[in-house]
Structure formats: structure tokens, C-alpha cells
Amino acid sequence: MDNDKPNLPNDYFREASEVLGEDFWQEIGQLIPVTGPRIDMYQDAAAIVVLAELPGLENRDRIQLRLEGQTLRIEGEIPRLYPVTDNRILVKERFFGRFERTLALPKPVSETGVVARYSRGLLVVELPIEASAKQTNIPIRD
């Protein structure tokens, strides 16, 4: 493993913090609207895995998932569990309300075998990579 390889996001964050100050990230974060839940996506040998933070949902019936070709659409509504209006909130980093996230999948996936689980505020969707998605070399003619 190469220990000298830079960790670019962390390196940039550290350098920007040194120049701009620690408060910069808090201030810039308030300018960027939060438009939906936080999502991670990764790939292992057999599947594309999508994780979405959906806190406060009492049951999975409030989440809609659709696979449209090679696009995964996640829709739902995250309730605000405390009675405070937006004009009284001093710092807002969390997302509440209706959302729709559309994710382009990096590889062709199979419609069969898709598994979705929701537990303790985390939605996990496993989409099997299409076995028949083979690469074809295309010859170039003169």
C-alpha cells in the first residue's frame, strides 16, 4: 500500500481550514441548500450498494424506490420531529421534507435480485451487477 499517496479531499480541507479559518466550513455550509438526504454509493464484486440516511421514518412504507433502466429513484418524506419553524432555526444542516433523489448507476444492474432494507434510519439498496453486461471491442475501419 502506498502511504505517500495524498488524500485529496482531506488535504484540501486541512489546507483551506488553515488559510480561511475553522468557521469557514460552517459559514459556507449555510449558503448551500440541503435538498435531500445524504447518500453513499459503492461497488463490490457482485453489486452496486446505495445507502441513504432517512432518519425519523417510522416505517418503510414512506419510502418509494424505482429502478428505471440504469437509474435508481428514491422518493419520500423525512418528518421534522420537533415543533420549530424555519425562522427560529439558528443552524440547519439536516434535511426535512419531501425529497426525490435520482442516481445514475455506474454499471448495468439486474432488475431481479434487488434487495432493499430499512432499519434505524438507514436505507440500504443492493443492486446486482448484470452478469450479461459484457464489453465488446469495436474495430475501427480506415
UniProtKB/TrEMBL annotation:
InterPro entries: A-crystallin/Hsp20_dom, HSP20-like_chaperone
Transmembrane intervals: none
Occurrences of domain SHSP (ranges): 30-142
Matches recorded under CDD domains: ACD_sHsps-like
Pfam families linked to this entry: HSP20
Family: Belongs to the small heat shock protein (HSP20) family.
Name of this protein: Hsp20/alpha crystallin family protein
